[in-house]
């Protein structure tokens, strides 16, 4: 075979084979279904926006990472996340929206970065956010882990843990550290706890201009571990007077309470004070989610609370809380790890096979009656020998083949072949749709 | 309210309000479901591709209309349709695909044109294609109108008509016209039949260097009308000796036969010889679909048969047949015409309302039990008076509100308010999920 052009996609722009796409879509549909069950409304914004609007908040740093171009007099760029477009959308349609505004958006976003394992230039994000005006009840923050739980419980990729913390804890703790420089350095040190361990963090903290008591308090804080209620008790024992810190403890306590009320299994979540992420962006609750058996994959669903969604666009105070699932990254890593196994598979459940061109009329009627049951079905359209047709069904992974020959038409009993076991069963014409439906539902 | 930036999307890049997005998604889901029922597999290709690959076939003319830019050493462009990416995909993954390859793709495409009513710069196309190697049975062409019928029957926008023709008729007829120049001019004249009428076409044909008999034959051809079987009989009566013409008649005849076998209602399709579209691209069957009551909207689903999908990429003969629905255009025009009416609406079917913060625990339990029935539900998270909560539910269009107060909890009977009628019904706790489900299913 000779190719006339390089038909590979650009590096970092993934595409899948049909059998992979089916699994990808199942994951996407599960996420969408759960989002909808929790009362989130669908939303879509353009993939391409005015560059100055996309860059209004983040400015220069993001600029290098986006695809930006001029056309028809517009300075345009592809979106790099779904949060900035949400902020713009809420600002633009402020008068038409009902608050609290709960929306989900699932779509492609773009990064101009160098692609590597699990990092793409074009990839799907699946976001939910709840936005309210002026205040947003903590009960909203407590809903988010329930959504995460339902999604990963249904996706069924093994044990997972939702790690929850609150930025107010670190921030409140730090307010007693001293000058800004020391605060930033101390936060950087704490953020390294998973990489360099407690002793490493102590070393770094001791290099800073902090009292011995302060160093100890920070170390005590970041070492707190245990069941959610224990963590909260220990946080109280730290006796940090700062009111922001107290707020953080109270908010965490309320979230844990609501998760218990809703029977989210205890092993599915924990308070994890080592999350010091999202320094710039998040202002309260933060979430990360990990697959317990695949720690290398890192967080598969992250998010948190932010004080003001759209301050760059509109004079309104719009606090929100949300999460994002990087679906392309998740799918691709799970596939690499062999957690998602993709074999020959198709949505099509039955191949109706006219043994002879003259049998096609009956084959179409049978196909239509199966389709009426909501089952994807295909009539084999090629005039080839049976072996070729079965090879086609087999290669595609179609689970059932129905033979429509003169004998079958005369007797009114049709042979159904289970392509996995090779078993053949004779089924009366009128029972074919329900037979296939029962088999498929099994 | 003061805006700090222009937050409108770029002209031609539409976005919808949540209640509009819901209707849009319902249309998209219907199209997807029918595509899947006919055995088409899902596929997705990148929105952005190498510019030289996208432009390999169409070259210069398309170039002006695409969004093209350079980044990371790549000359990139946004795709302008889903057919060119399909051709590239089939070439790239040729060894991994099973032929006949049946795929659907639903995604955004881009045109750099000046936007106007029903014409966008970013819009959805919903495509199916069946590709085979070397030959593709006419039975595939006969499936396409069934797919179109099921989609627009389910979408329920009133009467529609699928117009079917075959390029081989015109092409075969023309082969006896004479020189190439005259052929092109004659085809242009025929293409104007709907605009300038039969007399107008006659005038134009008479200006060309054609025999009087040829002019009459072309006029007879384009004037043929009637039921499908009548049209086919009249085509045979024309006694055109050309073998390509004869092939076209035969193919149309077979398509009509299979549509009759599958009980596609006679009023839903016709053979319409005035379609002379797709001069460059299509080589056999062509389809257009119109809403009978809204002729101004033009064709809402078009497509046809092509000889060789991917000749610009690969040395393989890959004939195909397919259609495309321009969903954004369709949705937007139907909305403008008032055929789609969008009121306050939401996917969320029930708002569970804690009358007092203390009732929230029970409210969550009720919400979870309704959600378990697969019904989107929301617990009102704000600590506000009942009036504000009801206003929220009403503004969003949530159909049922469940009050959870001390009295309800004590008695075990909960008040469900039908927000449309204002009726209030008292329902025992355990019956709430099934009660709401029954109401929703009504």
Write the layout of secondary structure elements.
2 copies of one chain form a homodimer.
Chain A: H1 18-37, E1 41-42, E2 48-50, H2 51-54, H3 60-63, E3 68-71, E4 74-78, H4 83-92, E5 101-110, E6 122-131, H5 138-155, E7 160-166, H6 167-174, H7 180-191, H8 193-206, H9 212-223, H10 228-237, H11 243-261, E8 269-271, E9 285-291, E10 302-306, E11 320-326, H12 327-336, E12 350-354, H13 360-371, E13 377-379, H14 386-396, E14 400-404, H15 406-411, E15 413-418, E16 424-428, H16 432-441
Parallel strand pairs in A: 1-5, 7-8, 12-13, 12-14
Antiparallel strand pairs in A: 2-4, 3-4, 5-6, 6-11, 7-9, 9-10, 10-11, 14-15, 15-16
Helix pairs in contact in A: 1-5, 5-11, 6-11, 7-8, 8-9, 10-11, 13-16
Verbal overview:
2 copies of one chain form a homodimer. By secondary structure, chain A is of the alpha+beta class. Chain A is 41% helix and 20% strand. Chain A contains 16 helices and 16 strands. An 8-stranded mixed β-sheet of chain A has the order 1-5-6-11-10-9-7-8. A 5-stranded mixed β-sheet of chain A has the order 13-12-14-15-16, with helices on both faces. In chain A, strand 12, helix 13 and strand 13 form a beta-alpha-beta unit. The model of chain A has no long low-confidence stretch (mean pLDDT 93). At the A-B interface, helix 1, strand 1, strand 2, strand 3 and strand 4 of A face helix 1, strand 1, strand 2, strand 3 and strand 4 of B.
